[in-house]
């Protein structure tokens, strides 16, 4: 009996030992799998809902999404947002601590623009003589913080009412109201900022000014011959806003300067606008792209710096296009204006610009209109060669951080210079030197079918609330072309490191800019209703995809949408990022990710904020 009890005791000890070894092994395997299941993605960490190690294909695809060339931000404590759908489907879960952006002495910046508000870089500039402090100076790496909301922010006033009035609390900047109170730019009325359609040069209103240009220059043919306009120093963009009635799309731009929030006003109104300046670098537009250039008291010294500012306008103006200049040197006779006018006459003559008309409105405001030549013959016939002619280039150079030229761009005469066909036929007709006709037909058909059969019907987007749209990877502009009959406009963005398709976009009668999505865009926060891209994030290899998504969040209005087309593998990886931002995020047809932004912001707002 004793021997039996001894045997049972030994077996019991053996069982306990086996169980202990098993439990320790299981714990070790769990810890190892948890370790291998964590990925360092530069500035964030994702974890899988499974306890097993991810397959090699997942690791490879993540390397494609993130850059090893950009130094990641410092590590932060992480918070996790896990949805029931993610748990059930085994999707990856995203961990990251989102924080509110701060500038200066820790104050929250509701209007933060990283590449224009880099105070440290601006202070270090050796000179500001040519507006270098108004140009781009981007922090590296690009921030991953979130911009706060102004107190009392609400859904914008819908178009077309927004052209005339916007909510004051959405853009709470009264400085311009006082600064321009005698020029009818903008007024405060109850809870609104009201835009009467006036301006420094629009004493009788912008509509009469636009009609006056048509009267003195019948060849302008608003909305047929003249479709794409660049408005330099645009103020609150009333000129471009009212040209929309004429089927003219205007790229209105001005710097972020003492004219507080003028571009923010324009975009809140639903008018195409962009932050930029004619300084030391070229504008982010293609050569020979605009049908007309306009400057109404835009405060640019065209003859300064060897005439480089006007040479830059010549670069972006289409051969045969017009420059409309309304400024005091045109019609005043004091010493300063007379000197400026003489310098302008000398410079335009040396550039072979023809003075088409010089006239005054009944209110005394004067306008001069120049026309660019359609051939190089005048350039070579000049007695003086100042400014010189630029060397011939086989291919255009994408103007991205490129210094201004001090020479005249030659007109490409391999093909006869032809003005685009009249609008709206222009939208579906591109010169063969830019793109074979069959390629344009295929692209146009694809986007028409995608928009009609999917975007407008299957994605749950409230298109009636959308006015300002951005295509982050625009290609030939097919997405914008497919939306042309809707009451919205599209900013077509062509990545500066990709194929140069922006000339095609302009040739079709659309607008856009070059940009690098590893940096912030030149716009204020909360200025777009829909951000769209096709195959952008999957090809973002030079920087962290989280930096790109943070920038999307900065420029998107609360309650509005992001629409991404990527591979299903990419969509599954980026969807948790949007969920962590409290977006609604749904994958549709295994091809599209539809995200709707909420009003949520992190709660780590410091006391003393002015927002």
UniProtKB/TrEMBL annotation:
This is Methyltransferase. Residues 46-86 are annotated as: Disordered. It is found in: Endomembrane system; Membrane. Belongs to the methyltransferase superfamily. Its EC number is 2.1.1.-. One of its GO terms (cellular component) is membrane. It holds the Pfam family Methyltransf_29. It comes from Rhynchospora tenuis. Gene3D superfamilies: Vaccinia Virus protein VP39. InterPro entries: Put_SAM_MeTrfase (IPR004159), SAM-dependent_MTases_sf (IPR029063). CDD domains: AdoMet_MTases (cd02440). Keywords: Glycoprotein, Membrane, Methyltransferase, Signal-anchor, Transferase, Transmembrane, Transmembrane helix. It is a single-pass membrane protein; Single-pass type II membrane protein. GO terms for molecular function: methyltransferase activity. It is an enzyme of class 2 (transferase). It comes from the Eukaryota. GO terms for biological process: methylation.
């Amino acid at each position: 009996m004793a021997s039996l009890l001894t045997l049972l005791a030994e077996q019991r000890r053996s069982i306990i030992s086996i169980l202990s070894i098993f439990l320790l092994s299981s714990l070790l395997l769990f810890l190892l799998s948890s370790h291998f299941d964590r990925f360092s993605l530069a500035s964030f960490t994702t974890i899988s809902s499974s306890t097993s190690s991810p397959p090699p294909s997942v690791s490879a695809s993540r390397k494609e999404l993130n850059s090893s060339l950009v130094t990641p931000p410092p590590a932060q404590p992480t918070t996790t947002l896990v949805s029931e759908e993610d748990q059930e489907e085994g999707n990856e879960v995203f961990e990251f601590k989102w924080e509110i952006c701060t500038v200066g002495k820790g104050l929250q910046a509701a209007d933060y623009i990283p590449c224009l508000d880099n105070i440290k870089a601006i202070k270090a500039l050796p000179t500001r003589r040519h507006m270098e402090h108004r140009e781009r100076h981007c922090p590296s790496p690009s921030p991953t913080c979130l911009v706060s909301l102004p107190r009392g922010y609400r859904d914008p006033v819908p178009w077309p009412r927004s052209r005339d009035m916007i909510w004051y609390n959405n853009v709470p900047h009264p400085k311009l109201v006082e600064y321009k109170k005698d020029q009818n730019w903008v007024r405060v009325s109850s809870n609104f900022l009201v835009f009467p359609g006036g301006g420094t040069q629009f004493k009788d209103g912008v509509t009469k000014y636009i009609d006056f240009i048509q009267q003195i220059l019948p060849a302008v043919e608003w909305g047929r011959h003249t479709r794409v306009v660049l408005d330099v120093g645009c103020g609150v963009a009333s000129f471009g806003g009212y040209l929309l009635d004429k089927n003219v799309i205007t790229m209105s731009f001005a710097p972020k300067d003492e004219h507080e929030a003028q571009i923010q006003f324009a975009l809140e109104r639903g008018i195409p606008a962009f932050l930029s300046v004619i300084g030391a670098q070229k504008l982010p537009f293609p050569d020979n792209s605009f049908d007309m250039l306009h400057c109404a008291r835009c405060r640019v010294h065209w003859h300064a710096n060897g005439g480089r500012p006007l040479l830059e306008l010549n670069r972006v103006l289409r051969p045969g296009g017009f420059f409309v200049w309304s400024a005091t040197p045109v019609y005043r006779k004091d010493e300063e204006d007379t000197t400026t006018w003489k310098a302008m006459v000398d410079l335009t003559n040396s550039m072979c610009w023809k003075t088409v008309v010089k006239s005054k409105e009944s209110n005394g405001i004067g306008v001069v209109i120049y026309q660019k030549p359609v051939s190089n013959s005048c350039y070579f016939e000049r007695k003086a060669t100042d400014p010189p002619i630029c060397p011939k280039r086989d291919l255009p150079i994408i103007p991205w951080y490129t210094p201004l030229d001090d020479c005249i761009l030659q007109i490409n005469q391999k093909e006869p210079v032809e003005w685009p066909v009249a609008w709206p036929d222009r939208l579906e007709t591109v010169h063969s030197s830019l793109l074979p006709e069959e390629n344009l037909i295929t692209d146009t058909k694809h986007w028409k079918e995608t928009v009609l059969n999917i975007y407008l019907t299957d994605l749950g987007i409230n298109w009636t609330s959308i006015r300002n749209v951005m295509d982050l990877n625009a290609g030939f502009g097919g997405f914008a072309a497919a939306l042309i009959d809707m009451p919205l406009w599209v900013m077509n963005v062509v990545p500066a490191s990709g194929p140069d398709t922006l000339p095609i976009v302009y040739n079709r009668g659309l607008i856009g800019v070059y940009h690098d999505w590893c940096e912030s865009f030149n716009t204020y926060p909360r200025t777009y209703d829909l951000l769209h891209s096709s195959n952008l994030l999957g090809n973002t290899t030079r920087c962290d995809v989280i930096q790109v998504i943070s920038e999307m969040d900065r420029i998107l209005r609360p309650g509005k949408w992001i629409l991404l087309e990527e591979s299903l593998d990419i969509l599954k990886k980026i969807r948790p990022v949007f969920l962590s931002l409290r977006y609604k995020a749904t994958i549709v047809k295994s091809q599209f990710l539809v995200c709707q932004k909420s009003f949520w912001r992190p709660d780590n707002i410091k006391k003393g904020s002015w927002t």
